[in-house]
Backbone:
């Protein structure tokens, strides 16, 4: 069992690990919070939440540190530091991979192959961006020689709140642009997955980020809530469920009345995305796409294409190939290199997914075509499930409408393009969508009709840093990643009018 508290004393100002109760009130007898190993349900880590006074102190520290970070460092000096962080993260990739696998229970092959290299690239990508994008723009305003210019300035103290499925990526995707553009960030990881954010804090320090500019606050939702209510925190970037996103908006609205600030807020929320397989699709590739869209990260992906619309002509062949290939995926210890599917992140979450499988069978009366069981044998103590494929589904079923966040695929059939587009859009979510077709005109036509932040054509679940990421409808507001989108999200513009004529 690892104790997270005994960290190097020079990190104390960044890593708020002061003992307290889980409710954030100071307590003479500190209550530790235990993390469980998802492969065997044994305690693996003990963490201590930050207290309310830690949060206040962290916000004050961030406020003065941000002024220094923004005024005393040029964009190119900040760029060098963030670039250093990228190199250090690459050097520490094995260690961070190990921790991320322990926290998330996702397969090592995924984290090593995708999360860690993506985090390295994110830092590198944003390092120089402020020098390129935020120099401001000159405007000829028609009263020569008078002119105007627009500066893009840092927002100030920002907060990042992360979910548990991609904790490293959440922390990096928020902090890399935030810090590069001159902001400070207080980051609260999910209480289930604190380790990668703590390592990231060490990396930033080693890279040269001054104390206070990036701080990690461990705790439950109440810590996140305190950050949202703070009048000093000028932007919150949140990744999590729709329910919590709505709570954040409510807390923000309530605290705006007593604050001097209208806080910016980005919400990266859940989804129930459609994956459409047209009758002219390459079926083998479409099956690959459906598996990527449903089984990747043990099904715990916000953008998963869990509503799989297959053209009725292809249904039988699609299901045959899908089951044949799904059976081959190795379920097991996520630390083993050849494991594809690990356990669910926690017992609670496993039970939520099992409940939905039960709803699919007994309430919705869909047909459980494959899987959907807890794995026994030598894996019986872990939170392992087999992927579930439901057929005979309709658009009104709960398993088709609600986000499950686990390996539960609903297969639906359709006859033509117009029908499938209107059914694909008939949801409160709008995070992502996928289309498999070999007809190029049809592909672009369909992409333009789909109400989603990202549409993949002939692939699924790719998220390069260059592309803005975010949702519409209940899937959220604002964007992460991208270049101009990041500049708009992490800076504010200031227009300066310069009068050169006599008045
Ligand atoms: P939650 O909404 O439960 O939690 C997200 C974060 O918010 C956690 O750090 C949580 O803390 C914190 N939190 C909880 N309550 C509050 C509150 N009242 N105020 C402030 N912060 C709070 O989501 P999950 O962690 O369960 O993540 C799964 C969800 O995230 C899914 O819906 C998924 O679709 C979505 N998601 C969206 C992504 C996107 O890019 N759109 C990407 C990844 C996930 P704690 O965990 O300690 O309770």
Residues:
């Amino acid at each position: 069992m690892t104790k997270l508290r005994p960290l190097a004393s020079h990190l104390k100002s960044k890593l708020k690990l002061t003992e307290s109760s889980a409710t954030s009130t100071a307590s003479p007898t500190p209550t530790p919070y235990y993390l469980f190993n998802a492969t065997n349900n044994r305690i693996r880590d003990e963490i201590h939440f930050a207290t309310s006074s830690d949060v206040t102190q962290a916000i004050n520290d961030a406020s003065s540190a941000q002024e220094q970070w923004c005024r005393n460092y040029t964009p190119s000096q900040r760029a060098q530091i963030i670039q250093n962080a990228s190199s250090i993260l690459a050097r520490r990739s094995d260690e961070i991979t190990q921790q991320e696998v322990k926290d998330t229970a996702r397969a090592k092959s995924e984290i090593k192959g995708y999360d860690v290299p993506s985090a390295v690239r994110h830092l590198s990508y944003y390092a120089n961006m402020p020098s390129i994008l935020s120099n401001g723009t000159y405007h000829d305003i028609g009263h020569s020689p008078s002119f105007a210019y627009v500066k893009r300035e840092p927002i100030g103290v920002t907060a990042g709140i992360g979910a548990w499925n991609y904790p490293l990526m959440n922390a990096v995707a928020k902090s890399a642009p935030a810090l590069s553009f001159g902001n400070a960030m207080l980051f609260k990881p999910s209480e289930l997955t604190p380790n990668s954010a703590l390592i990231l804090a060490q990396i930033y320090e080693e890279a040269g980020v001054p104390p206070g500019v990036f701080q990690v606050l461990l705790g439950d939702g109440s810590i996140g809530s305190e950050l949202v209510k703070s009048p000093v925190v000028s932007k919150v970037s949140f990744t999590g469920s729709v329910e919590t996103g709505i709570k954040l908006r409510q807390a923000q609205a309530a605290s705006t009345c007593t604050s001097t600030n209208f806080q910016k807020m980005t919400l990266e929320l859940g989804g129930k995305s459609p994956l459409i397989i047209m009758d002219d699709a390459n079926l083998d590739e479409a099956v690959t796409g459906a598996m990527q869209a449903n089984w990747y990260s043990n099904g715990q992906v916000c953008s998963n294409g869990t509503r799989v619309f297959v053209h009725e002509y292809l249904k039988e062949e699609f299901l045959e190939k899908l089951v044949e290939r799904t059976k081959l995926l190795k379920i097991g210890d996520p630390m083993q290199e050849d494991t594809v599917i690990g356990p669910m992140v926690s017992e609670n979450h496993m039970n939520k997914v099992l409940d939905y499988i039960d709803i699919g069978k007994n309430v919705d009366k869909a047909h459980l075509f494959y899987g959907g069981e807890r794995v026994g044998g030598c894996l019986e103590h872990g939170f392992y499930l087999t992927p579930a494929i439901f057929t005979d589904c309709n658009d009104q079923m709960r398993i088709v409408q609600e986000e499950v966040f686990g390996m539960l695929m609903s297969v639906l059939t359709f006859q033509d393009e117009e029908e499938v587009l209107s059914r694909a859009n008939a949801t409160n979510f709008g995070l992502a969508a996928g289309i498999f077709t070999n007809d190029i005109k049809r592909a672009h036509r369909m992409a333009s009709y789909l109400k989603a932040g990202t549409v993949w054509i002939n692939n699924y679940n790719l998220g390069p840093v260059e592309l803005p990421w975010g949702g519409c409808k209940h899937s959220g507001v604002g964007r992460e990643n991208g270049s101009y989108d990041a500049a708009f999200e992490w800076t504010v513009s200031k227009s300066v009018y310069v009068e050169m004529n006599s008045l």
